[in-house]
Amino acid sequence: MSAIVEAWKQFICRACGLIYDEELGDPDSGLAPGTRFEDIPEDWECPLCGVTKVDFEPFVQREAAPSCAPVGPTQEPGIVVVGAGLAGWAAVEAIRALDAETPITLISACVGNLYHKPELSVALSRGMTADAIVRESANDAATRLGVKLYTETFVVGLATGSHQLRTTRGTLKYTKLILAQGAKPILPPEFPPHLCWRVNDLAGWSGLQIQLERKPQRVAIIGAGMIGCEMAEDFAKAGHKVTLIDRQSLPLGGLLPAQAAVRLKASQLKCGIDYVGGVQVKTITDLGAGVKSIITTCNVVMEVDHIVTAIGLATESRLARIAGLEFERGIKVNPATLQTSSPDVFALGDCVSLDGMACRFIEPIAKQARAIAHVALGIPGDAYVHAQPIIRLKTRSLPIEIHGAPCQEGEWVVVEEDLNYLVMHQIVKGQPSSLLRVGSNKAA
User: Fold this and answer.
1) If we measure between CA atoms, which residue out of 42, 51, 40, 43 comes closest to residue 16?
2) pTM higher than 0.85
3) Residue 191 DSSP code
4) What does the angle CA 351 – CA 355 – CA 360 come to, to the nearest 5 degrees?
């Protein structure tokens, strides 16, 4: 008589949202398929953000209630969500956790499949494909959550007074509207769109991945911020020749003190990444046969096969302007309720600004979604309280972690330093503010 095998469980990282599946394991970090969560060593680290096992909690995907039937736009108006990225689906999940009846319509400019966006900056070296990254198809998620789904549909107008949203598929009435439109990569005029990859979503990443899986190639990444540095290491580990280009003389120069940035540059060099700093791109031209030329303002010339821009993100203001919503580096929202300047319109994720600052982190999204769901449904719940998330760079060769929000006025002071590990405090007005850890303290 065979023993009864316990069902496989999943656990979600509270910091970045990665899901560990016992059945699949995590072979890249030494966990064979079938490794139970309780058998994972306590010092095992999340392969995306570097937190340890204690920061994971059980994950149970919500099953659809029998009453959750998709509701069309000609029926009773309900909640409309714009955007099917992490933020849009998080809002839908949060609403359904509280209410199985309210009609929900989700508008997506893309196909809307569910995937974990932070995986895009580590997926190439792990040999992942777009199909492997997708967790759940949009249609399956819509069925599970009882959502009327419009894919490849664009919003062209918003009238908050009459509660109407105009789309390329017709006009929808809403009782509450949730904007989760995200942000788009910045592309200066001197960067021809047809010559530059923008890896901010699965579609953009998938196109580049198909090109890079053919053979080792020369890739220039313009922008040495967090995303640029993470992609540079990922592409280099996948066997490509990577050049990282930035206006700053050191990578992550706008965030890290010089002592830390120098270590990061040295680590990148060991990975085979060439860093070209203190330069600005002047022109990008197509030389034919798939080769592109990059010329800087100081006349440095580079020839590469692919160019990836990672200069930064910006929220599209068109819809907010049409609707008369307050906008400052993003859609301005109430920091406690995530309501915009129009009471029945909410926003969350990359498209919002809190006290004039963009909020482009994964960790707060689930909390923002829960706060919106309670207010939109009129159910008492905790207000959203924004806290600066821990910044973790997904560069496995040199872990970097920042607690707090570094500022220009602060002074960085070394607390601990050796060849492999650096700890610094930023002092603001005589008090320790941010904490920075670079490298690994093996002794600890």
Assistant:
1) 51
2) yes
3) S
4) 35
